[in-house]
Design goal:
Elements: H1 2-28, E1 47-48, E2 71-72, H2 73-78, H3 80-83, H4 97-104, H5 116-137, H6 146-178, H7 185-206, H8 211-234, H9 236-261, H10 267-272, H11 279-285, H12 293-314, H13 326-355
Antiparallel strand pairs: 1-2
Helix pairs in contact: 1-13, 4-12, 5-9, 6-7, 6-8, 6-9, 8-9, 9-12
């Protein structure tokens, strides 16, 4: 009976896996528009490779054939909305209107320092970084100027994508070194890093980074990355607590921005209330075609609130505790697949209706 049960479980699991893979294949099929494969049709300097090996006059030593053809940078940029869709690739959460309302109510949720390391990380975050950052960017709580927010968001997101990648890297090598499982942490940390990087790319579609902004981004990465690596090497919990505090400030900032954009008479309302969401944001969060920039900001806020909660949770766990968020990634992917299928069916029905 046990063998029969196990066999049936394996068959069921295999069936579910095939169904999931089929959904990924169908969902991602329209995501890539390929350029001509004729070498004379494209400039080799503009090629973006979709496989591991770049073009080379030399034959591949194993005679391997690329799984996908190549596309130009121009074609990639033209398909920006599709390329921002992360189905099957570090899938992000697609926020519903109800979830966004619920998340926006949590902007005052903060963690009170308990341990000595909590107090140290809290002091570094708020007194060493947050308040000086406000001064440098000219940010003020009441009626902030659009310019002060623009370069603030670029610098913030360029740095926010670092801790998750650092932590994932350390845990990856730890798993290899100790010959043991990671218990699901790496995937969540990499998704966090990718999510923050996408926030940066979204901001870069809306704002232009000055030479000073680029210099500050470089300085923040060069100066703070070694600090983050050292903290994670000594006490991983402390870095997760630090990120939790970082995300608390991000939530506070984003909530304040959203309130001002939606409040008539403010500088942000005049400058941003009428702006449309960029295509990259529509593809990433599956926003409607008529979505506004403030809708994008709400999704970014919701992402930050999720990172806040995840890192404060990790800071309270042992290194070998199973990740309580691991199932959420599968749910997010399933939700995205269903949305892609629904969108494809709707487009197909509309096309059929138009030709009839």
């Amino acid at each position: 009976m046990l063998r029969a049960s196990a066999s049936s479980s394996r068959v069921g699991a295999a069936s579910r896996a095939r169904s999931a893979w089929g959904a990924v294949s169908r969902a991602t099929r329209p995501l890539i528009r390929f350029a001509s494969t004729n070498d004379s049709d494209v400039d080799s300097d503009e090629l973006v490779r979709t496989q591991h090996f770049r073009l080379s006059p030399l034959a591949h030593p194993l005679k391997a054939k690329p799984s996908l053809e190549r596309m130009t940078k121009m074609a990639y940029e033209a398909a920006e909305m599709s390329m921002a869709n992360k189905v099957g690739r570090q899938q992000n959460h697609i926020w519903s209107r109800e979830e966004l309302i619920e998340k926006l109510d949590t902007y005052k949720d903060v963690h009170t320092p308990v341990t000595f390391s909590d107090h140290v990380m809290h002091s570094i975050m708020y007194y060493g970084l947050y308040h000086p950052f406000n001064f440098i960017t000219g940010y003020r709580e009441v009626n902030p100027s659009p310019l002060s927010i623009e370069w603030r968001l670029i610098i913030l997101e360029s740095f926010a994508g670092v801790p998750g990648f650092v932590a994932a890297g350390f845990r990856h090598f730890r798993s290899l070194r100790l010959l043991q499982k990671d218990y699901g942490w790496i995937g969540t940390l990499l998704e966090e890093a990718e999510n923050e990087r996408m926030h940066l790319l979204v901001c870069m579609k809306m704002f232009k980074a000055s030479s000073l902004t680029r210099t500050l981004c470089l300085g923040a990465q060069v100066g703070l990355t070694p600090f983050l690596m050292l903290v994670y090497f000594i006490k991983p919990k402390a870095l997760h607590r630090f990120v939790g505090y970082l995300e608390q400030t991000a939530c506070h900032t984003y909530h304040n921005i959203i309130v001002h954009v939606e409040t008539p008479g403010t500088d942000l309302h005049k400058a941003w209330a009428h702006l449309d969401a960029p295509d990259i944001a529509k593809g990433y969060w599956h926003l409607s075609d008529d979505a506004k920039w403030v809708d994008t900001l709400k999704c970014m806020y919701a992402d930050e609130s999720n990172h806040r909660d995840v890192n404060h949770t990790f800071a309270s766990m042992e290194a070998d505790d199973p990740n309580p968020f691991v199932h959420k990634h599968a749910e997010d992917a399933a939700k995205a697949w269903k949305m892609i299928e629904a969108e494809a069916q709707a487009a197909k029905a509309q096309k059929a209706h138009g030709t009839s």
